[in-house]
Amino acid sequence: MPKLKTNRSAKKRFRTTGSGKIRRRKAFRNHLLEPKTTNRKRRLWKMTFVKERDKGNVRQMLPYMK
User: For residues 62 and 17, what is the distance between their CA atoms, to the nearest angstrom?
Assistant: First the structure.
């Protein structure tokens, strides 16, 4: 069976922690920021974790993540 290729766009969007959790950036923080409140922008700045039900899809795109 051939090696699986890594999905390059997913590789740029996801990182793993030491404990094996998958981190991702939150959406809605790229543009059109003026109408958003400062508190909302600050909340969006933090990284968050991928939900359990989506981990399989991310791992399928990134075969090196175990």
Answer: 14
Beta bridge partners of 14: 24
Nearest to 20 by CA among 57, 46, 59: 59
> Fold for domain 8-61?
Factor Xa Inhibitor (4.10.410)
Predicted confidence pLDDT, tens digits, the chain (66 residues): 788 899 999 999 999 999 999 999 999 999 999 999 999 999 999 999 999 999 999 999 999 876
* Domains in the chain: boundaries: 8-61
pTM of the model: 0.80
